[in-house]
Amino acid sequence: MKTFLLILILLLVTCSSRLFAQETKLTIDLSQYFQRPKVSLSGPNFNEVLTYDSSRKSVISLSLKEAAYFTLSIDLSANTLYLEPGKDLMISVVPNEKGEFIAIHLDLRFEGENADINTYLNTCKLGSMEDKDFLLDETTYLRKIEQLLKQNKKTIHKYKLNKQFEEKELMRARYQVLEGVTSYPIQHFWEGGNKTSAVFKGGETPIVKEYIARQLIDDEKAWQVSAYRKYVKSAVAMLAFTDFGASWESIIQERLRVLTQYFKSPRILEDMVQNMALVYVESTRGDSLMGFQTAYDKYVSKPEYRQELEKVYAMWNKLKKGQHVVSSGAVYEDVEGNTVSLDDLKGKYIYIDVWATWCGPCRAEIPFLKKLEEEFHGKNIHFVSISMDERKRNWIKMVEQEKLGGIQLWGGPSAQIAIDYKIKGIPRFILLDREGKVIDNNMSRPSEAVTKKVLEELEGI
């Protein structure tokens, strides 16, 4: 009887540790790093910018129910962490063997119960496929994929990490490689990923598509691994692909058909249908779910998911004509380093060009934009170009060399305007009225004749 009670107590303790969250303290020591970087931590249902004290240490306590992968970003350096409930971890940014700090790949020293796991994650170099491999024929490509998977598995085994983590890591490493396979049916018809071929058809590459389908497993344990979730999203999209000209209504319905063909798990179906709904609304710029609404009501019941969808609708409504969409406090730099806000330009119409020096189509519009600026010189309108270049010096060089006119501003790759207007591709043109409200959040290009006509017809121009 005593033995039975002891076993029962042990079971209860074990179950309790799994059901209830435990605190995990994460300490980040930047005292040896001469920079004052932006530090952030992201993971499952967590995304936060971290602060550090005068000793240049950042300490944060996380409430964890289960072990999970996180990403620690220190300016340009992105580092994978594995945090476990109740296991504290200390991270120190240290110089490399040459006594240097490489901003894009900082060297880290780990201390704590799972230091060996985190050292592995940030030092182990697993193999990966190259872009040129997409040009291989199907059989050769898949043979190379399988060889790579075996090689990475062997590498992970060599570290002799605890079995529970190793099982999860093997899954993560496998599907990180396999996600690339989902790009093969399209990338195979591109020359080095730069030039599309008119002969591409959705029915091509049947061997690779069959291989992609075989890797789908209807397992909620696997679904907990983010690399597998990413793979499923990409795989479903590829297996459902027919042609580039299909409407989003037919695209989303075909993705639903593929999804329900391979999955029955309520959790996977709910998560995937939610993701598909968000993709649909964004791709159609705020349209209702139309024929997809029935499937959404059937599979999605989480209140937080439905609230998320409503927020997306509300966001797109803001982008409609007559709304004011400029983030408070958002500023951009001019060539001299002065800060400029779009709010500063109210009182005139604003024709915005979001571009970058590396973007061919953006540069092709420059002569037409210059001509437009000349024709509307002295009119009641500002022509504003906002660069999303990562390197500010490249932007300044082009502004000076090309003698670009109008108001030239730099926002960088994370320019607030790209966030405000959900910009996924450039060039992008936006027309605002004299109060800063949207007239057209996807305005025609300077090279299109309709642009001049629309501007000429503006009241009080």
Automatic annotation (TrEMBL):
Transmembrane segments: none
Record-linked CDD domains: TlpA_like_family
Stretch forming the signal peptide: 1-21
Residue span, Thioredoxin domain: 319-460
Subcellular compartments: Cell envelope
Top-level taxon of the source organism: Bacteria
Keywords: Cytochrome c-type biogenesis, Disulfide bond, Redox-active center, Signal
Name of this protein: TlpA family protein disulfide reductase
Organism: Butyricimonas hominis
Taxonomic lineage of the native organism: Bacteria, Pseudomonadati, Bacteroidota, Bacteroidia, Bacteroidales
